[in-house]
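Have a think about this chain, C-alpha cells included, and walk me through the fold.
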Amino acid sequence: MKSFRRHCPIPAPNALLLVAAIFCPLRSQPSAPAATAPDRIPEYTVMRAATPLTIDGQFDEPAWRAAPRFGDFVFPWWTGGTKEQTRAQLLWDDDYLYLAFVCDDAHIAARHTERDGKIPEDDCVEIMLAPDADRPLVYFNIEFNVLGGILDNFRPNGPDQPRAAKWDAEGVKIAGTYTGTLNDDSDTDRSWQVEVAIPWRNFAAQMKSMPPRPGTGMRANLNRSGGKTNPQYSQWVLGGTPRPTFHTPLRFGRITLSDRVATP
C-alpha cells in the first residue's frame, strides 16, 4: 500500500509527502439510492462531522464509518470492458466539505501532479457542485487523482458558456492511497482511494449563507473517468447524453446538509 498526501493552497505546492498507509475500505454504511431512471433526481443527505477530519486517505475516523454511501455508480456510455465500481461518501462541518472515494481498479494509472494539469488522462474522480440549489447552472468542477493532482474550474453561466478565466480553489487538502502498483500493467491492482477537504470559503459568493446551515440544499454530481487500461466513464447521476459529458447541471442530484452528527 502506498500513500500520498497533498495540501493545495494557491499557488499549489509541487511537493508530495510519502507516508505509510494501511488500507481501510469504506464499510458498514447505509446507502443512498443510485440514479437508475433519467427522470429521477436522486438525493443524498450529508451528515455533519463532529470534529475536523484528518486528511490522510485512511477513512478511519468514526464519522466515515457512519456516513451514508452514495449508491453504485452507473455507466451510461459503457460499450465494453469491466465496470469497475466506485464507492463515495460526503461529510461537512462549518469549514469544509469532505469527500471520500474508493475506486476498484485492476490497473491504476496516475502521473500528473501539476496544478490544472492533464488530470483527466489519469484515473481520476470529480465533484461537480452548484452551491445554491436554486441556481444549478452556477457550478464548479474539481477533479483529483491518487497522487494529489487537482484540476478545477468555475462555470458561472452553465456548460455552454465560457468558464471563468482563472479560478483555483484555495486550501484544498488531498490524500490518496492505493493497493497495487502505479502505471504498471504487468500485475493486477486492487483499488485506489482519495480523501479530500474543500474549504467552503471557495464557494462563499455563490452560497446563501456562510458558513452553510443545516438544511442547506445544493446540486451535485460525482464522476469518475480516465486511466490508460480499461478506461470507463461512470457517475452517480445519469448524464442523459448520447456521448460522454459530465457537464449536465440540470440533471445533478440534490444534496442536503444535515444537522445529524455522523456517529457509528
User: Anything to note?
Assistant: Confidence is low (pLDDT under 50) at residues 8-38. The longest strand covers residues 96-104. The radius of gyration is 17 Å.
